[in-house]
Amino acid sequence: MFFQERIKLKNLGSFKIGGEAKFFKEARDTDDLIESVAEANLRSLPFFILGGGTNILWSDKGFDGLILKPSIKNLTIEGEEIKAGAGVLMSELIDFAVLHGLSGLEWAGGLPGTFGGAIRGNAGAFGGEIKDVIKEVVSLNTSTLNTIKRSDAECVFGYRTSIFKEGVKEIIVEAKLKLSRGNVNAIKSAVQDKINYRHERYPMEYPNVGSIFKNVAISKFPKLDLERFTNVIKQDPFPVIPTAFLISEAGLKGVSYGGAMISPKHPNFIVNVLGATSKDVKNLIELVKDEVLDKFGVGLEEEIQILSENPS
Fold this sequence. Notes:
Elements: E1 4-8, E2 20-27, H1 30-42, E3 47-49, E4 56-57, E5 63-70, E6 75-78, E7 81-85, H2 90-99, E8 102-103, H3 115-120, E9 124-125, E10 128-129, E11 134-141, E12 147-151, E13 170-178, E14 180-181, H4 184-201, E15 216-217, E16 234-235, E17 239-241, H5 243-249, E18 256-257, E19 260-262, E20 270-272, H6 278-296, E21 305-306
Parallel strand pairs: 2-5, 3-5, 4-21
Antiparallel strand pairs: 1-2, 6-7, 7-13, 8-14, 9-10, 11-12, 11-13, 15-17, 16-17, 18-19, 19-20
């Protein structure tokens, strides 16, 4: 059989939630990826591209199509440029950069997921974003099966988004990063600082998918007296109020529904504390959105991807 059948989605995501996928395929190289997409198109199968599964809430009912995971793992260096496949883990990419004394990814220390996923969502933390270091991206058009090369500008990066997330039906294959020479020990120390911060401030002891909501630009607050909250405004990379602060001020820390809980440690995380279902998490998401809208007059936007059983 070309595809594996009846794969448990909870084993393909860091939330440990979800039903079964009808089909699953891990593509090991570009040719394998092309063949997989061609087969899915031939069968008229809807398909979803899986990175590390660290930012996805699967449906309890599963997925009535193909989960396609590009596990393209090439990792090479030329001067101050690194070429990496979409399936390379961010931790692997950072370690590779550190090993070769290349600076530019320190902000991503401890960032979960794959390189391809980070590009698609323009991952960011501590004031840095993946767009800051991308030189070019190669992707596969899922209709023509042709590969396309784009410069960083042509990727149309925005806040937690890109042309690959909003605009084109393409699969990221690989990309080049433009980094700079630095001191290995200083780079390593900066990366470790970010890893330590995550372990100290984030609820890593429970299954989670990171920040549920995007932070909110200060320009979106119609009622909030921003001067009262000067100390909490941060650059992300533009001035924002952290959503964790808004959720905390709404009194929602530790609130639970079923097996899911709004983390008391970091309230922009919902954690799976006791066999949570997708429905449990969705109920908490709606509660947070309603309460923050009521208290602050701003609508929150999910940063995670919520996948339905029957994709459009």
